[in-house]
Amino acid sequence: MENSLDNTVVLFVDVINDFDFIGGERLQKHTEEMLPNMINLRKFAKENDIPTIYINDHYGMWQADFNKIIDYCKNERSEEIIDALKPDHHDYFLIKPQHSAFFQTPLQSLLIELDRTHLIISGIAGDICILFTAKDAYMYQYNMHIPQNCMASEEKENNEYALYLMHSVMKADIRPF
């Protein structure tokens, strides 16, 4: 199927994050480097009425309430990123128990309901949650654009390798946004 704005959705994975873990400072730094591109992607989605779906870790709360997760995650490290990318009342928000945005979430059902087959995937961490999400999206036969300038990992080499896998194995378009 050909990609068009009519069959496109934007996924933001784990952009609400506290960066409070070993390696969190590096991930925060690399995310801040990508932040202008991610903001532009969000703006593009809004301007073109493309549905935006946030899929985020639940941080032990198990409530799909992005305001509660924002309150939990907001700190000195995360505030700029969260404020720039947080969902609004027009966006969809799902929580996930593991790395993939598809694993034990209603994402697949929502995409079917929205009649969307082309995914633009952005977020963190590229070498874990984005990679696992892309693997599942590939298995479900979605077309993917995973802009290399809209995802970050703790280590840049791991991010590059994840992009290589997503492009070569999962047939994702990784051109910058």
Number of domains: 1
Strand content: 15-25%
CATH structural class: Alpha Beta
Q: Please tell me the CATH architecture by its name.
A: 3-Layer(aba) Sandwich
Order of helices and strands: EHEHHEHEHEEH
CATH homologous superfamily, by name? Isochorismatase-like
Major pleated sheet: 6 strands, parallel
The best one-word shape is globular
Q: What integer value in Å does the Rg equal?
A: 15 Å
Question: How is this structure best described in words?
Answer:
With about 180 residues, the protein is α/β, with parallel strands linked by helices. The chain has a single domain, classed as Rossmann fold (3-Layer(aba) Sandwich), CATH 3.40.50.850. It is about 40% helix and about 15% strand. The protein is built from 6 helices and 6 strands, in the order βαβααβαβαββα. Strands 1, 2, 3, 4, 5 and 6 form a 6-stranded parallel β-sheet that branches. Strand 4, helix 5 and strand 5 form a beta-alpha-beta unit. It starts with 7 loop residues before the first strand and ends in a 9-residue tail after the last helix. The mean pLDDT is about 95.
